[in-house]
Write a structure and sequence with these properties.
Shape: globular
Keywords: ATP-binding, Kinase, Nucleotide-binding, Transferase, Tyrosine-protein kinase
Number of helices: 9
Distance between the termini: 59 Å
Helix content: 40-55%
CATH architecture of the largest domain: 3-Layer(aba) Sandwich
Strand content: 15-25%
Number of domains: 2
Organism: Acetivibrio clariflavus (strain DSM 19732 / NBRC 101661 / EBR45) (Clostridium clariflavum)
CATH superfamily of the largest domain: P-loop containing nucleotide triphosphate hydrolases
GO molecular function, one term: non-membrane spanning protein tyrosine kinase activity
Protein name: non-specific protein-tyrosine kinase
Family: Belongs to the CpsD/CapB family.
Strand order of the largest sheet: 1-4-5-3-6-2-7-8
C-alpha cells in the first residue's frame, strides 16, 4: 500500500454533517442477521451527487471510528477527484486485469480510517470487467478487510453496471436529485435493482432547494418540510399507478 497520505477536502456545514450522520445511522438500522459491510451507491443519471454522497458518507463513517474503503467503480466515467489527488495511477481496473495487487491500489488518506481506490486505467470493455470473477473476488476480499466498503457505481439509467454490482453487495443506496428525475424513471430503476436481487437500503433525496427545505438548526419546520417532500413523491407514485391501470 502506498505510504503517502492524501489530503481530503472535507468542509461541510453543520446541517449537512448531521444529514450524513443520520444516513449513517439509518444504514445501521437496516442491519438484521447479516451485517451490511459492502454498499453500492448509484443514481438514475449523471450529476445527481452519488459520488459526493459516497465519499462524504465514507468519511462520516470513518470519523465515527470505522475502517472504510471508498471504491470508484464507475469505470466508464471515472470521478475527477476534486476531494483528493492521487499520484498512484493504479486502481480498480489494474487489479481486475491482474496488473496490480490489492495492496498496490489502496491509498491511505489524512483521515484516520478512510482509504480509497481510484478507477485505474481506461479500458475498452468496462462491462466485462464488472461481470468478471476477479471483480467478485475483489468484493469478497475487501469485505473481509474493512468495516465498510462503499462502491461508487455508474448511473443505472445509462448502463447496467450498477445492477451487476448491487447483486453482489450487502446493500444498495439510490441517490435522487430533487425535481430532476421523473417518478416513472425512479420506479423503473428500483424495479431493475429488484430483478437483480439487490437489497435496496433506501433513497437519498439530494440537492433540495434551500428556500423550500429549511435546515434543522434554523427552524422546527424541518420535519414538516420533510413530510411535504415525501407526500409529493407519494402522490406522484399513486398517479403513475392509476395511469398504468386505466
Amino acid at each position: 500500500m502506498p505510504e503517502i497520505s492524501y489530503v481530503i477536502k472535507y468542509n461541510l456545514n453543520q446541517t449537512v454533517e448531521e444529514a450524513y450522520k443520520a444516513l449513517r445511522a439509518n444504514i445501521q438500522f437496516c442491519e438484521s442477521s447479516k451485517k451490511i459491510k459492502t454498499i453500492a451507491i448509484t443514481s438514475y443519471s449523471p450529476g445527481e451527487g452519488k459520488s459526493t454522497t459516497s465519499i462524504n458518507l465514507g468519511i462520516s463513517m470513518a470519523k465515527a471510528g470505522m475502517n472504510v474503503l471508498y471504491v470508484d467503480a464507475d469505470i466508464r466515467k471515472p470521478m475527477p477527484f476534486k476531494y483528493f489527488m492521487s499520484s498512484n495511477l493504479k486502481g480498480l481496473t489494474n487489479y481486475i486485469l491482474g496488473q496490480a495487487t490489492l495492496e498496490d491500489v489502496i491509498n491511505k488518506t489524512d483521515i484516520d480510517g478512510f482509504s480509497f481506490i481510484t478507477c485505474g486505467i481506461k479500458v475498452n470493455n468496462p462491462g466485462e470487467l464488472i461481470t468478471s470473477n476477479r471483480f467478485s473476488n475483489f468484493i469478497r476480499e475487501v469485505r473481509e478487510l474493512y468495516d465498510t466498503v462503499i462502491i461508487d457505481t455508474p448511473p443505472l439509467g445509462s448502463v447496467i453496471d450498477a445492477a451487476v454490482v448491487a447483486a453482489q453487495v450487502d446493500g444498495t443506496i439510490i441517490v435522487i436529485e430533487a425535481n430532476a428525475v421523473k417518478c416513472q424513471n425512479a420506479i423503473r430503476m428500483k424495479e431493475q435493482l429488484i430483478r437483480a436481487n439487490a437489497n435496496i437500503l433506501g433513497v437519498v433525496l439530494n440537492k433540495i432547494n434551500k428556500s423550500e427545505y429549511k435546515s434543522y438548526y434554523g427552524s422546527y419546520d424541518y420535519y414538516n418540510s420533510q413530510r411535504k417532500y415525501l407526500k409529493k413523491w407519494s402522490e406522484l407514485i399513486k398517479d403513475l399507478k392509476r395511469e398504468q391501470y386505466d
